[in-house]
Structures are given as C-alpha cells and as structure tokens.
C-alpha cells in the first residue's frame, strides 16, 4: 500500500485549491486563464494568475492535477487517483443495512 503523503493533505486543505478541483471536475483540460475566470465568476475568488498558478503547482505536486502542452497553451486536468490512497489507508467499513 502506498503511503498517503503530506502533499496530498496539504493540497486538499486549502479552500481555493478545492475550488480549483471542483472546476476541473466540471470541465477538465482548462487553461490558467479559464481557471482564473471560473474562480472569479463562480466562487468569488479574486487573485492573480500567478497566485492561481502557485495553487496549481501544489495540486500538481500532490498528483491531483496533470498538465500538458497543446501548442502555446498549457492545459490542466484533474487526476483523482491519489485520493484512492486515503481510502486504502482508512477503508470505509461495511455497515449492514437495517431491514426492520
């Protein structure tokens, strides 16, 4: 079993980073400009593109965001596979259904 890293918890701890993950869940493969716009319009988060880029770097370090270049654009997409490590470390117990 892979150990759940501190990077993963650090990435999930910040509300702005969770909002970025929410936006990438709705629409993957977004540019930095698109993410900044969606954060501003949908989450009332106003910050510089540099600040959003730093949040993306934390998410990428945790493995939650993958980036790829397409021409002059850098596209950011969601990768939820690191979240499996949390469930593997602390499995959800089976709770029998109540058939009363």
What would you say this structure looks like, in words?
- InterPro entries: ArsR-like_HTH, HTH_ArsR_DNA-bd_dom, HTH_MetalResp_TranReg, WH-like_DNA-bd_sf, WH_DNA-bd_sf.
- This is HTH arsR-type domain-containing protein.
- It holds the Pfam family HTH_20.
- Residues 1-100 form the HTH arsR-type domain.
- The chain has helices at residues 6-13, 15-26, 32-43, 49-61, 84-89; strands at residues 65-70, 73-78.
- It is α+β, with helices and mostly antiparallel strands and 100 residues long.
- It has a single domain (6-89), classed as Winged helix-like DNA-binding domain superfamily/Winged helix DNA-binding domain (Arc Repressor Mutant, subunit A, Orthogonal Bundle).
- Strand 1 and strand 2 form a beta hairpin.
- Helix 1 (6-13) runs antiparallel to helix 4 and helix 2 packs across helix 3 (32-43).
- The radius of gyration is 16 Å and the shape is elongated.
Mind sketching the topology for me?
Layout: H1 6-13, H2 15-26, H3 32-43, H4 49-61, E1 65-70, E2 73-78, H5 84-89
Antiparallel strand pairs: 1-2
Helix pairs in contact: 1-4, 2-3
CATH topology group: Arc Repressor Mutant, subunit A
Largest sheet descriptor: 2 strands, antiparallel
Mean pLDDT: 91
- CATH superfamily membership, which one? Winged helix-like DNA-binding domain superfamily/Winged helix DNA-binding domain
């Amino acid at each position: 079993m892979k150990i759940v890293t501190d990077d993963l918890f650090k990435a999930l701890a910040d509300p702005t980073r969770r909002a970025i993950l929410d936006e990438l869940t709705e629409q993957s493969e977004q540019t930095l400009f698109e993410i900044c716009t969606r954060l501003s319009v949908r989450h009332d988060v106003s910050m510089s593109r540099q600040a959003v880029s730093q949040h993306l770097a934390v998410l990428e370090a945790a493995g939650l965001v993958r980036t790829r270049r397409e021409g002059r654009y850098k596209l950011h997409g969601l990768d939820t596979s690191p979240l499996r490590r949390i469930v593997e470390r602390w499995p959800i117990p089976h709770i029998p259904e109540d058939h009363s």
